[in-house]
Design brief:
6 helices; 173 residues; 7% strand; three-stranded antiparallel beta sheet; DNA-binding; mainly alpha; homodimer; globular
Chain lengths: 173, 173
DNA sequence: TATTGTTATACTCTATAACTATA
DNA sequence: TATAGTTATAGAGTATAACAATA
């Protein structure tokens, strides 16, 4: 049974251990989601650090820039990464200092600038992204195809549902 | 419209936007999982802060203690929360200073101590946990029952799969 | 020798707000 | 007036390692 509250070798004590038999199914689902996500994120954080001396936020910023060849504004990065402008400035400063990204002044709006990967940055990003792909593929390798498809579909539903919720309560932070 | 570049209201640009058409399905699944989890976690972090002046790690520590009435050792907390002993010491210090937890010296092993919620701590925890339940229930409320069940089941599979992976490569950190 | 927990340190991320310069 | 981005600051989490006390 996938949902036993007792602990076996396959159900180690972790974040989810805090749910009791009377807890809501919603809480149970949330903790399970969180513990999956935290676990994988910790693995990745650790490898990014030891193998590439970088961090998830920096890697995410590079990935966002890589996926939009023309570059992105600070505000756009801020929205996508769901952190404040000030924090984007900080991460961008570090990456710029290392020659990985550059700020391009815009003639059209002189308040704004476009952030882009440099050539060096693009090479650096690709090396990390390749390793990252291997990590993820290894992690997910023995997940059955049907489970994979189901998760992809249903997590998308969850995403829609939570977005709607939040746009009602915490509009545009 | 919260977004410009070719995105519908139901698919806003976010972490997941960085996947391109050629990216692996595994990467796609991971980013979807991460963006669900981050989004909910951000909501909760924000509410814990503004409504209860606390943080997810502190709340998690309290929850772990609450679920095991007798209390837990620092090492046990460290394992469950997947952070180092030193960090558990820090969080415990803060909670102890606020009178929420207490350290109980053990006669059986004088190196170790048992961390327990105080009476005040238990009351405080219950207030937060109740609010937390409401938040989670609200977030998940319009998720169809079948989707819920499917996610619960398949996330458990994912959990097993990733655990196995990690115990091969990073035994007992 | 190994384990429990503490201390110290350096770094990063986060949140908030005041500020500038443009629009 | 509103927006883009910067600066400043305080606080928290994280990783690492050295350490003391005990097993």
């Amino acid at each position: 049974m996938y949902d036993s509250t007792s602990t076996t070798a396959l159900n180690p004590l972790d974040l989810e251990s805090r749910v009791g038999p009377n807890d809501h199914q919603n809480l149970r689902l949330w903790l399970r989601l969180l513990s999956c996500s935290n676990f994988i994120e910790n693995e990745i954080r650790s490898r990014l650090r030891t193998e590439f001396q970088t961090t998830p936020p920096r890697f995410d910023l590079m990935a966002q820039l890589h996926s939009s060849r023309g570059g992105l504004s600070m505000s756009e990065l801020s929205k996508r990464m769901m952190v404040t402008n000030g924090n984007i400035t900080g991460i961008t400063d570090q990456l710029e200092k290392d020659g990985i990204v550059e700020r391009i002044q815009l003639a059209s709006d002189r308040r704004s600038s476009l952030i882009r990967l440099t050539t060096k940055g693009r090479r650096y990003y690709k090396r990390i992204a390749n390793a990252h792909d291997v990590w993820i593929n290894t992690l997910f390798t023995s997940l059955p195809e049907a489970t994979h498809r189901s998760l992809l579909k249903h997590l998308n539903e969850l995403k829609q549902v939570t977005r709607v919720f939040s746009s009602n309560s915490t509009e545009a932070h």
